[in-house]
């Protein structure tokens, strides 16, 4: 009897220990709002004001599963499955994928970092994204640079990818990613690769990154990515940035440049297909300069804003985009907040081009000016 009780007790102890070494977390974020835009181009090419219900004006609505298993010696097995969806109609985002935001599995070491395989973010998103207001909780989708040309708002992910992310070595972190084409006889066609580096020292953060996608003249969404705003033979993005925090305030600067070869089309996220613009197959360049800042007025109330200047080269023309953004958010609890944000964009030198102002996520304007404002609520779980 005593032996039976002892075995039962030890079995319970080991089962509890094994359970403690593995974990799976269900998490998510829901962002819903009402957006007003003073000028949206319709199918007839006319500009009209527009009120619409929006999902993900700041952060894309998502739910996910994140898990790990302790393998001993500082090594863990890790995975993430993350679905993006539109809260207003219940449909999946990212082209209807079940786990369109992220889907990967891999190994993580406390000493050496992690290696993961699947559908993942590139190094520009991982390293530069946190330094810009787009792609963060302080502005997000509608604060993106024109057409989200540098992908800091995560418009596309990379399929078939292998990614390495280092451990933190005295403030330094590095990462690299390679996305396979998965084509027999077409190893370099539609592949993607990127690399990034960051350094943190107290209130100072510095980062730089590079990304390249080769698409063989196809739309960039053909195999490796989805919902990219461009169709081009090759896309290259590089940039750097820094931020500095002092007390409740943080200021930052981000520089990026995007270069497209053999570009045949571009579009604006949120234009419902009405913003598709055919191009002649030449080279395009976007150079973005963002100055940003945020300030916590109280533990519950924050304010954030930025100015972005984008100098571009499109079809021999030189459009220049000026965008001003402002957001205030109030936390009702640790998991729920309400926000109000607004954007103004003015573009010049568009003669000969079928484009107007292009605030990300709201559609292309019929003129060179566009104003948008959103009131919304976010809940995290």
Automatic annotation (TrEMBL):
Q: Kindly provide the name given to this protein in its UniProt entry.
A: Outer membrane protein, (Porin)
Q: Do you know which InterPro entries this protein is assigned to?
A: Gram-neg_bact_OMP, Gram_neg_porin_domain, Porin_dom_sf, Porin_Gram-ve
Which organism was this protein described from? Answer: Caballeronia fortuita
Q: How does it sit in the membrane?
A: Multi-pass membrane protein
- Primary subcellular site in the record, as a coarse category: membrane
Q: What is the lineage of its organism?
A: Bacteria, Pseudomonadati, Pseudomonadota, Betaproteobacteria, Burkholderiales
Q: Please list the residue ranges annotated as the Porin domain.
A: 8-349
Secretion signal, residue range per the UniProt entry: 1-20
A single GO BP term for this record reads: monoatomic ion transmembrane transport
The UniProt keyword set, sorted, is: Cell outer membrane, Ion transport, Membrane, Porin, Signal, Transmembrane, Transmembrane beta strand, Transport
Summarize subunit and interaction data from the UniProt record for this chain: Homotrimer.
Q: Which residues cross the membrane?
A: none
């Amino acid at each position: 009897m005593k032996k039976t009780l002892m075995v039962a007790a030890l079995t319970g102890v080991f089962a509890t220990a094994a359970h403690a070494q593995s974990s799976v977390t269900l998490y998510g974020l829901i962002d819903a709002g009402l957006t007003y835009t003073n000028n949206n181009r319709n199918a007839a090419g006319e500009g009209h004001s527009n009120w619409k219900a929006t999902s993900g004006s700041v952060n894309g609505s998502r739910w996910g599963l994140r898990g790990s298993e302790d393998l001993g010696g500082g090594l863990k097995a890790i995975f993430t499955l993350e679905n993006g969806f539109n809260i207003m109609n219940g449909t999946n985002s990212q082209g209807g994928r079940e786990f369109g935001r992220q889907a990967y599995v891999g190994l993580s070491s406390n000493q050496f970092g992690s290696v993961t395989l699947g559908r993942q973010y590139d190094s520009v998103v991982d390293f530069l994204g946190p330094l810009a207001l787009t792609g963060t909780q302080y502005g997000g989708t509608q604060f993106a640079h024109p057409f989200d040309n540098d992908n800091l708002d995560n418009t596309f992910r990379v399929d078939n990818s292998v990614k390495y992310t280092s451990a933190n070595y005295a403030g330094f972190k590095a990462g690299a990613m390679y996305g396979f084409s998965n084509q027999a006889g077409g190893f370099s066609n539609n592949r993607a690769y990127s690399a990034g580096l960051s350094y943190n020292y107290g209130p100072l953060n510095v980062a730089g990154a590079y990304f390249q996608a080769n698409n063989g003249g196809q739309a960039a969404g053909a195999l490796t990515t989805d919902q990219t705003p461009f169709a081009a033979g090759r896309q290259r993005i590089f940039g750097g940035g820094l931020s500095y925090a002092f007390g409740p305030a943080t200021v930052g600067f981000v520089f990026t440049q995007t270069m497209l070869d053999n570009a045949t089309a571009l579009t604006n996220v949120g234009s419902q297909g009405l913003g598709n613009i055919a191009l002649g197959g030449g080279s395009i360049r976007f150079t973005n300069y963002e100055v940003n800042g945020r300030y916590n007025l109280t533990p519950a109330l924050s304010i954030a804003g930025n100015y972005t200047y984008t100098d571009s080269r499109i079809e021999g023309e030189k459009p220049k985009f000026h965008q001003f953004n402002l957001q205030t958010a109030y936390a009702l609890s640790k998991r729920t907040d309400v926000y109000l944000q607004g954007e103004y964009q003015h573009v010049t030198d568009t003669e000969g081009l079928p484009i107007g102002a292009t605030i990300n996520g709201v559609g292309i304007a019929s003129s060179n000016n566009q104003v948008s404002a959103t009131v919304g609520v976010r809940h995290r779980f």
